[in-house]
Design a protein that fits this description.
The complex is a heterodimer.
Chain A: H1 8-31, H2 41-64, H3 75-88, H4 91-101, H5 109-128, H6 135-160, H7 181-193, H8 201-225
Chain B: H1 2-17, E1 28-34, E2 39-41, E3 44-54, E4 59-67, E5 70-78, E6 83-92, E7 98-103, E8 107-113, E9 116-118, E10 123-128, E11 149-153, H2 162-166, E12 170-173, H3 183-194, E13 198-202, H4 207-210, E14 222-224, E15 227-232, H5 237-246, H6 250-257, H7 262-267, H8 273-277, H9 284-306, H10 314-332, E16 339-348, E17 352-361, E18 369-371, E19 377-380, E20 386-389, E21 394-397, E22 403-411, E23 418-422, E24 427-433, E25 440-447, E26 450-457, E27 462-468, H11 478-489, H12 493-505, E28 512-526, E29 529-547, E30 550-551, E31 559-561, E32 574-586, E33 594-603, E34 608-614, E35 619-622, E36 627-629, H13 630-637, E37 642-661
The chains are: A mainly alpha, B alpha+beta.
């Protein structure tokens, strides 16, 4: 089926993503972790956490340049599958961290699922706003607010409420901040490697919230445009009656 | 009549409630024998034999030996009406009661074992005889002015491990049919002697019985390895005293004068943590290998853009394929298994003595059991929730943490001898062979007070050396000694840690050895499955020095008696005197007819006074120049080891001697 067929431009996006990730992580090994004398597994644990955060940011950037002009396919499944494939293509790099640091097995799919969910959100918004002008401004602002602004507000809030945080998935942080995918991914990686106070609860909230957002956006889009989604969205209007 | 009846019943009643605690309806009974016929030495590993008997019921549970607050357990499965006995050894570090009980959560039967615990500096004389009582008079002998002697009965089968029999300072064999020893007993006896210990064999009226088997045709004193067998007339106490004193070995002198450091040897194994962990450090070669596969991955992905017309799913299949390949590599490298590393000190001298530290990093959250191979004793270090089984050599951990296990063992293997010869003008010549099949790195040779750097030796390779020894370690204290060796042999931090552990915690009596570092594969049993782990070891080989009647400086090491002070002395080569005196014993080999002894020492102050003991006049005589000539040598060594006494205050490097003998 054409469902699994990724367009050439998108393949180049994935390859660029992988190349930048590989170069960064290899430089980390060569310049930081292998230079340390002795056995230091915490370096690799933190390496895993930084890797997930960094790949989250890079992934967002890639998704911005993604080509959402699909033809002859069910757009929803296509978006999900493309996002999944691009996230999961980084699995070999994650496994290298585990092999070098002799770390114990954790479920590496959870941060990748969070990442691909975020990819689905961005692609859906891109797809919906395809025919509006100023779409790049809105997408850019949306990403900025969700990732960067909410992190800044988290910082303000910890000072306002005099919080003492021992870990990222801390009980004292209001759940709304965990809708930020960056905080969520870094938090789940940290809880897998080091300490865990809230289990998978923030992940579930995140998935439920963004799942509902995607659903609502798509329904609104259908209702407003009364267009059956499979037809090429570059055409105006509805079916030829 | 009535009164007699009342008195009798009172007696019977008192008899019943006194003595042994009994548990009602016990179909399981446990019986314990500990020590050498009930006698144990503090600070050592003492044998224990537990017999469990079941009547009319089957039993499946645990045997627990409580020594103070340490518990040693073992799983027990008994059929009806069977008796099972377990022989093992437990360390006794404090004077506390030992309780042996059988049960799961509730105790079914227990016995309170009160062994006679003797202090660490008691001299245990082991008697191998059919009539042990005849030898009680041995309690009165004295060796090197120590008379804290205790006679103990040895088991006729000599079924002891090396650590257990280490408690016995020397053995007396009389009225004993030596040929009845099993092969295992013979080996235990021979290895005991080889390690530098003494066996006195009676050649009086029981000679016909004693001098059979291993000691057939023994007519005068024989050297076996580092120790000796002395046929002696055991009826005369003075003859026994004199023979023992004249033929004493460095090993026996060390045991008498120094307290056992067994407990500190277990605790100090923490020094090897870093060397052990270093095995798990990732290597550059594995990184380059993974980078290569990563490059292939990205290359194939780019390629799949261009071959799209041949295969539609090439991109996807490359992604999925490489995820599987990397996962397979991770599994092969130990992704889902417990990781472990082993650091060990291996001493090759008439057998292989190993002292190991195992670091285990567990994978599952609940506890695991770890069984070591080829060990005689093991203990957990720095851990809290664990149970030690000394019979199966297994530790069960009930909590997830990082585990550190100390173990030591002995393997009766014979390795090739390494021999080098030394001429009178200090030229060392010979072939050094690496008897291992692995490469030895950073190896060096210690000949008395000289360290010679050899470098890397491949497996089974022979290196020829021709070197003038330059006494570069002479008059160095502890720190400088190790520092000089590390600098000359270019040792890194981990090798230095191992060398320090060996230097401070493992006694050796001769000072000509080849030391090298190697890494090999070993295995542990984790949760009943064999698992290969890497081992990094320091190998110490004994080297035989052939020199024409010349013992260079520091090949005859002093054994020091620090006096009655209870503080343990940590330094090995130096001492700080505080207006007191220490006694040093030097055992000069019999075949070296010494005519000149030079003494080397260094002191920080002038307030020191050195004398030697004249064994002919039984008095101390001053030594004004650091030299002993022929007559003084005869007076100093006619009846025993050369004895020096150092008095004063200040820091002094312990005096070392070099001996020239007649050709």
């Amino acid at each position: 089926m054409d469902l699994f067929d990724i367009s050439k431009k998108n393949k180049i996006n994935i390859i660029a993503y992988l190349i930048i990730l590989s170069i960064t992580s290899i430089s980390y090994y060569l310049m930081v972790s292998l230079r340390v004398d002795g056995y230091n597994p915490s370096l690799y644990k933190y390496g895993y956490i930084y890797f997930n955060g960094f790949s989250m940011v890079l992934f967002t950037l890639i998704m911005l340049f993604w080509d959402v002009n699909y033809t002859n396919v069910n757009i929803y499944f296509k978006i999900i599958i493309e996002s999944l494939i691009s996230s999961l293509s980084a699995i070999p790099l994650i496994l290298i961290i585990f092999m070098l640091g002799q770390l114990n097995k954790v479920n590496i799919f959870v941060p990748l699922i969070i990442q691909s969910f975020w990819g689905v959100v961005i692609l859906t918004i891109k797809n919906i706003s395809n025919k509006y002008k100023n779409k790049n401004f809105f997408i850019g602002m949306f990403i900025f607010i969700t990732i960067i602004l909410s992190s800044v507000y988290l910082f303000f809030y910890t000072n306002y409420a005099n919080l003492v945080l021992t870990t990222i998935y801390d009980k004292d942080i209001p759940l709304v901040f965990f809708l930020n995918p960056l905080i969520n991914i870094v938090g789940i990686s940290y809880s897998q490697m080091i300490d865990n106070q809230m289990g998978y609860y923030p992940v579930i909230c995140y998935l439920v919230f963004w799942g509902m957002v995607v659903l609502i956006l798509n329904i609104l889009y259908l209702k407003l445009n009364k267009v059956y989604p499979i037809i090429d969205s570059s055409k105006e209007g509805g079916q030829n009656l | 009549m009535k009164r007699i009846g009342i008195i009798l019943s009172v007696f019977i009643f008192m008899f019943c409630i006194s003595g042994v605690s009994c548990y009602a309806d016990s179909d399981i009974s446990v019986n314990t024998k500990i020590g050498f016929d009930g006698k144990c030495k503090l600070g050592g590993i003492n044998p224990i034999k537990v017999t469990i008997e079941s009547k009319n019921t089957e039993y499946s549970g645990r045997l627990n030996v409580n020594v103070g607050d340490r518990v040693y357990t073992h799983k027990v499965d008994l059929e009806k009406n069977t008796k099972k006995s377990f022989e093992f050894a437990i360390p006794i570090f404090n004077e506390n009661d030992i309780e042996v009980d059988v049960g799961n959560d509730d105790v079914i039967d227990a016995t309170d074992v009160s062994p006679e615990i003797y202090s660490q500096d008691t001299i245990f004389v082991g008697i191998l005889s059919d009539k042990y009582e005849d030898y009680y008079y041995m309690n009165d002998i004295n060796i090197l002015d120590k008379d804290n002697v205790q006679v103990v009965k040895l088991d006729n089968t000599l079924n002891y491990t090396t650590a257990e029999i280490y408690n016995i300072d020397f053995i007396v064999l009389d009225n004993f049919s030596t040929k009845d020893l099993t092969e295992k007993g013979e080996n235990t006896l021979k290895n005991y002697i080889k390690r530098g210990n003494i066996v006195l064999v009676g050649n009086g009226k029981y000679a016909y019985k004693n001098l059979t088997g291993v000691f057939k045709n023994l007519d005068n004193k024989t050297n076996i390895g580092d120790g000796r067998v002395l046929p002696v007339d055991l009826e005369n106490k003075n003859i026994v005293n004199g023979t023992l004193q004249k033929n004493i070995t460095p090993a026996l002198m060390t045991k008498i004068n120094n307290t056992s450091n067994f407990e500190s040897r277990i605790n100090q194994i923490k020094k090897l943590y870093n060397s052990c962990d270093n095995i798990l450090k990732p290597k550059y070669s594995s990184l380059y290998f993974l980078i290569a596969i990563l490059v292939i991955y990205i290359f194939l992905l780019t390629l799949s853009i261009f071959i799209k017309k041949y295969h539609k799913y090439s991109f996807l299949s490359v992604v999925v394929g490489f995820c599987v390949v990397f996962y397979g590599l991770a599994l092969w490298g130990g992704f889902e298994s417990t990781k472990g590393a082993l650091a060990s000190i291996k001493v090759y001298k008439d057998g292989l003595y190993t002292y190991n530290l195992a670091n285990i990093y567990p994978y599952k959250k609940d506890g695991i059991d770890i069984t070591t191979f080829n060990s005689e004793f093991l203990d957990a270090v720095d851990s809290e929730k664990y149970e030690v089984d000394l019979i199966d050599k297994k530790i069960e951990y009930t909590d997830k943490e990082n585990y550190h296990i100390y173990s030591h063992g002995f393997k009766d293997i014979q390795s090739e001898d390494i021999t080098i010869s030394l001429s009178k003008d200090d030229i060392l010549n010979g072939d050094i062979k690496n008897t291992l099949s692995n490469k030895m790195i950073n190896s060096f040779l210690i000949v008395g007070d000289t360290v010679i750097n050899i470098g890397d030796i491949d497996g089974k390779e022979v290196v020829n050396i021709n070197y003038k020894i330059d006494h570069n370690l002479r008059n160095t204290g502890d720190y400088n000694y190790i520092e000089k060796i590390c600098k000359d042999a270019e040792l890194n931090n981990y090798q230095r840690d191992m060398l320090e552990y060996y230097f401070y915690n493992i006694n050796d009596f001769d000072n000509v050895k080849l030391i090298g570092f190697s890494s090999e594969n070993n295995k542990l049993k984790i949760d009943e499955k064999d698992q290969k782990i890497k081992e990094s070891s320091m190998n110490v080989f004994d080297v035989k020095l052939k020199s024409n009647n010349y013992a260079p400086c520091e090949t005859i090491k002093p054994v020091v008696y620090y006096g009655q002070n209870k503080e343990k002395v940590n330094e090995k080569r130096e001492y700080i005197l505080q207006n007191n005196s220490i006694t040093l014993y030097y055992k000069i080999p019999d075949n070296l007819k010494a005519y000149n002894i030079d003494i080397f020492t260094k002191a920080d102050t002038d307030d020191l006074y050195l004398e030697y003991f004249n064994q002919v006049t039984n008095s101390w005589e001053a030594l004004n120049d650091l030299n002993l000539k022929e007559e003084q040598i005869y007076e100093g060594t006619s009846k025993g080891p050369l004895t020096l006494r150092l008095t004063g205050s200040g820091r002094v490097i312990l005096p070392q001697i070099s001996v020239n003998g007649l050709d």
